[in-house]
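To: structure subgroup
Subject: Chain for Friday's discussion

All,

I'm putting the inputs and outputs inline so they're searchable in the archive.
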Amino acid sequence: MKKARKIVIKPFKQAPSVPEGFEEKAWKSLEVSLLCLQNKSESAAVSLGWEELYGLVTDLCHQKKAAWLYELLQKHLAAYVERTLKSACEEHGILLMESAVFVERLVGIWEEYCSDLLMIRNLCLYLDRTYVIQTSNVASIYDMGVGCFQATIQTLPPLEAKVTSSFLQEVERERYGETRNHLKSLVRMATALHMYTKHVERPFLAASEVFYAQEGQQLLESASVGSFLLHVEKRLAEEHSRVTSVLDGNVITKKGIVQ
């Protein structure tokens, strides 16, 4: 009976290596694809499918280029947000728009950015689930992208001021009976960008105090006690509804508006 032959697997004489310039070419392909996604355009330069792009991210991580890739992605997102917001302010005149139109446009920019950011996070999921999780003080790709948006807005004080003034104008119109859209979305955006306390809550409470002081004085001079109390009850119900539906039930805001 013949003995079974032993199979010996020998190592490569030379360790496999990636092609020269692989990292730069891989990033270039990723960057072009990201721009096409964000600009909602198709380009002849994009020849790779979603799975191939995902594979590039994975390969770069395997080549110990995760930190390098994360940094490039952060720079890309920061540059894109800066271009987008500055273009909205300087070329499209968003700061000169009426408050309702401004809120709709800015919320639209924010929501579209977040939608793109989710897709980018999915594309770079391997990076997010390895390098980010294993490295302390490194934000997730989504949180890092939100941070880029926040940092850019902070460099544009007129835009921050417009957020505040537009919110207050829309609330005042709502108090006079008009139906205002996008307020809830604006508040959620401000909350996500850590703008809520400074640019929404504090100005809102201060403006509310002035509004009701003036309205109360007018009613005291013209209305009966019964009518005044009924109006107060109506206003309290309106503000409770606004805090619950628009301001996501913020306890501090609710307490402040009632006081």
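Points worth raising on Friday:
The longest helix spans residues 196-222.
The chain has eleven helices and no strands.

D.
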